[in-house]
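Reopening this ticket.

The earlier resolution said the output was attached, but the attachment link was broken on my side. Pasting everything inline this time so it's all in one place.
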Amino acid sequence: MASPYGNSAAFSAPPAPPATTDVQQTRFEIECEFVACLANPYYLQYLAAEKYLDDPRFVRYLDYLQYWSTPPYLQYLSWPGPTLRHLELLQEESFRQAIISPEVVMRLEREGIQAGFNWA
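Inline output:
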């Protein structure tokens, strides 16, 4: 069965925003939506519970997605603060193991809420 993450060559270059072909546009939209989901600590816990965070291919995919922290991609994120923070934390094996804990999830949720209050 083929890997849902593709092979490492598939991670070589990010799509162009906004893309010029239908295939590039679809890839851009899928990756943008997935990265946006990383702002949700409960989704991170789900990924850990389903063992995605234990898969080296998935970890490489998360590393590849760090291009979202640079212009021009950054402007497409709805919640850049928590999204990029969680993407950065996911690079650490200790965090990938800890996120399964409800206490860690609740702490991330509190930090996100507090950041929203501080921003306003």
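Reporter confirms the inline version is readable. The mean pLDDT is 86. The radius of gyration is 15 Å.
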